[in-house]
Design brief:
The chain is 31% helix and 29% strand. By secondary structure, the protein is an alpha+beta fold.
């Protein structure tokens, strides 16, 4: 189930339901972003906002342990 389906299932607009994304920056390390399920994280903008050169999403298999 994706975020838009989850929002519809609970009766909320997608703009009011959030997903949590974990990313790693080259300088800053681990970062957490909460964004609406209807949006995508722009990694270049995220890096700029964090004062980092590059940001990439952390793989789910790294998060679970």
């Amino acid at each position: 189930m994706n975020g838009n389906h989850a929002a519809a299932a609970i009766g909320f607009p997608p703009e009011q339901v959030f997903k949590t994304l974990v990313a790693r920056g080259t300088k800053r390390g681990i970062m957490v972003f909460c964004i609406p399920v209807c949006c995508e994280l722009d990694l270049k903008k995220a890096a700029k906002a964090a004062g980092d050169k590059k940001v990439e999403l952390v793989a789910m298999k790294e998060l679970l342990p």
